[in-house]
Amino acid sequence: MSSLNRLQKFVQRNDMYERRFEASQELALEAYDMLNQYVFDNGLDPCPITVRRTRGYWGLCDGRIVDDECRVKEITLTKRYPFKAMFINTLAHEMVHQFQWEVLSNERMEQGKAPIMSHGPSFYCWKPALKEYNIILTREY
For 81-106, how does the pLDDT look when each residue is reduced to its tens digit (9 = 90+)? Predict the structure, then answer.
């Protein structure tokens, strides 16, 4: 039997559904690295991640076009979540948007098409890969 990787161990922790989780910058960066490695095959360029109190959203991926290239300026995550699993679900959600923006949108622009960051088919195609880690991909975050 093979051993579990770091992301598998992280999402199987007993504290994933304990109430009132407060995110930290350090944990956000660690979780980003694990998701990038195991889900996105290190296909995402590291981007700034800010953890702070927000109003009206759990997470946000801020994409910009700079010098005719789609780049993510920042991923913002709220500081407080009902439980840790919601934090990891939210981060994964924003990383899917980062993939859409930095990978798919640049490919689309080379073909003369508009950039994309949506909750359509290119978003939900990540659902099976994330489900392997008990991470729920939904548009709600």
Answer: 999 999 999 999 999 999 999 999 99
Q: Which fold has domain 16-131?
A: Zincin-like (3.30.2010)
Amino acid letter, residue 72: V
* C-alpha span between 29 and 99 (Å, rounded): 17
Domain boundaries, the chain: 16-131
Tens digit of each residue's pLDDT (9 = 90 or more) over 45-62: 999 999 999 999 999 999
User: In Å, how far are 30, 88, 89, 90 from 15, measured between CA atoms?
Assistant: 17, 12, 15, 17
Helix axes 84-99 and 25-38, enclosed angle (nearest 10): 60
Candidates 92, 89, 88, 123; CA nearest to 105 is 123
SS3 labels along 93-113: HHHHHHHHHHHHHHHHHHCCC
User: Residue 120 in contact with residue 94, Cβ under 8 Å?
Assistant: no
Residue 141 pLDDT level (bands cut at 50, 70, 90): low
CA-wise closest residue to 22 among 101, 76, 86: 86
